[in-house]
Design a protein that fits this description.
The protein is mainly alpha-helical and about 400 residues long. It is built from 16 helices and two strands. The chain has helices at about 10-15, 20-30, 35-50, 55-80, 85-105, 110-125, 130-140, 145-175, 180-195, 220-250, 260-280, 285-300, 310-320, 325-335, 345-370, 375-395; strands spanning about 1-5, 280. The protein is globular, with a radius of gyration of 21 Å.
Amino acid sequence: MAGGGAGGGLRGYRDVLTHPGALAFSLTGLVARLPISMAGLGIVLLVEGATGSYGLAGSVSAAYMVANAVLAIAQGRLLDRWGQGPVLAAAGTVFGIATSLLVWSVQADWPRTASYVAAAVAGGSLPQIGSAVRARWAQVLDRPAQVQTAYALEAVFDEVVFILGPILVTVLATLVHPVLGLAVAAAAGSLGSWAFAAQRSTAPPAHPHRRGGDRRVPLPWRTLAPLTVVSACLGVLFGAAEVTTVAFADEQGAPAWAGALLALWALGSLVSGVVTGALTWRASVTTRLRVGATAMALAMAPLWLVGSLPLMGLVLLIGGAAIAPTLIATMSLVQSSTPRARLTEGMALVQTGLVAGVAPGAAASGFVVDHHGANPAYLVSLAAGLLAALAALTLPRPPVSDGD
């Protein structure tokens, strides 16, 4: 399925990063994405520290998450229509102000409604940097193989964010001050978005919609609809696996090892992401997505039979290798099938599906854990993986150029 030297190995990463402005916007995008893994947990730590209620903390965090999922597609549409510069600058400003008001409302013991509103505004305005940076790569690169390498790099950066973000926010909030974790997330999101937006030379052009003019180019729903379902199922898989792994570590009498187990899972994905970007694949993007989704389901299959922490760590490390290649193929297929004028919106749609699946997955696995224990709850992730694989089979047959 892959050619060993066709992608130039690690040289492929050097080639894409040497494009004028590429290194700057990619690294800036990495910083600006930190709130993705920090803000939700930061809200929980802040609210629980001030009120002593995990229930209230979870509900405020949920308001943030739901608003983010609901408004991400709308922001993607604005990014395509008005351009990344003004939209991301405005979103970064609103996000910083709303997060500051959330902190203030909690610390000053304002009415709870104020905290919910501030959290929802912060979540709804969270700059969609992940979609924006991938749209920018599609703008500055000409060859599909280079775009795949760039997307692999961003998948690796995503794993870095999800490994470092929770650790950073937890250390700051628990060892320094409950406010500091969320404050750093807000600063990274706002300052990072402003710096990213200021890099105009590499930004995709705006595609304003003229009143009375031609109709907007349609989205390729025959491809995007199955991709969104695949992403939502993978979101369920992720949300369920995270909660179940925490419960598994607790049942093993070592709750502190939950973070290490999840870090091993992310590490497997990170390594496979690096390898994916170093190769040029002969198989089509659609085929790779189908294989990847199936591999993710199979990786979940043995988990409900594992009974020790070391073995669970090994199985998660190996299983994590299926994550990044699947997500890279997903975004590559969005890029290759979506009109340039609506690319950011298409990417936001798929990423919203991924985010939207996390909460139901966590809730379903939590229910199984409460009634049957941790190991059987891994079957929730298995079922979600199987549904993702089935949804991938409904994608249209790829053209010959899809594998270029």
